[in-house]
Amino acid sequence: MAQIVLFHSVYGLRPAVSAAAERLRAAGHVVHTPDLYEGRAFDDIEAGTAYQEEIGNDELLRRAVGAVAPLLSSGPAAEEGLVYAGFSLGGALAQNLALADERARGLLLLHGTSDIREDAQTGIPVQLHVAEPDPFESEDWLNAWYLLMSRAGADVEVHRYRGAGHLYTDPELPDYDAEAAERTWSAALDFLTELDG
User: Fold this and answer.
1) Distance between the two ends of the chain, CA-based, in angstroms?
2) What is the pLDDT of residue 197?
3) For residue 110, what are the β-bridge partners?
4) Which domain holds residue 60?
5) Would you put residue 132 in left (φ > 0), alpha (ψ -120 to 50) or beta?
6) Nearest CA to 31 among 9, 57, 5?
7) pLDDT exceeds 70 at position 91
8) Average pLDDT, whole number, for the chain?
9) Residue in 73, 97, 74, 70 with CA at minimum distance from that of residue 6
10) pLDDT at 1
11) What is the CATH number of the domain that holds 31?
């Protein structure tokens, strides 16, 4: 059983995030889903991106740190460490927090990555799921990301889904790809099981 913090995408805490959390809970994991938008959620990327920009990336990161801090101060996550996970923008936030947390158990990235400092050091297992091609995660970017993450010491596993849209795990968005979504969750659950092993 993993203690997981799952961050939402630029769309906010949509039903797909809650459904993903329930799927992970049904497999025996404890899942926390912080609402970094404080109750706001969006149906189109333009509105979500505008709200993200209004808040600002620094404030979003501050909110993410604030959501995780109580989990790391006491209870099972404080003892066992957290698995950080997120969708797109939430994946970028999850990556930043995981690389800063020396007790992190793993990193599950769905549709998104973030910059990696040249001096980053980590030994965590990382699993990335991304469309191929993805308008927000270019081939060159992903190659550089993989090299830097591997150089940092992470055990990286990348799953690509040809023909899927960017946020293909959300059934209510045009990007949705049912087959790719099921393959993603199957691999993600295997990844989380291996973390417990």
Assistant:
1) 10
2) 63
3) 87, 129
4) 3-196
5) beta
6) 5
7) yes
8) 95
9) 97
10) 85
11) 3.40.50.1820
CA dist 175 and 144 (Å) reads 25
The residues near 129 (Cβ < 8 Å, ≥ 6 apart) are 109, 110, 111, 159, 161, 169, 184, 187, 188
* Residue 23: burial class (beta carbons within 10 Å; 0-12, 13-18, 19+): middle
**pLDDT the model gives residue 24:** 97
Judge residue 16's burial from the number of C-beta atoms within 10 Å of its C-beta, 0-12 exposed, 13-18 middle, 19 or more buried: buried
Q: What is the mean pLDDT of residues 138-151?
A: 95
Cα–Cα distance measured from residue 175 to residue 177, given in angstroms and rounded to the nearest whole number: 6
Q: Token match 């293909």: residue?
A: 168
Angle, helices 57-73 vs 45-55, to 10°: value is 80
Full strand arrangement of the beta sheet holding 155-162 = 30-32, 3-7, 83-87, 106-110, 125-132, 155-162
The pLDDT assigned to 140 comes to 96
Under a CB-based contact definition with an 8 Å cutoff, are residues 87 and 185 in contact?
no
Total structural domains within the chain: 1
**Percent of the chain clearing pLDDT 90 (strictly above):** 92
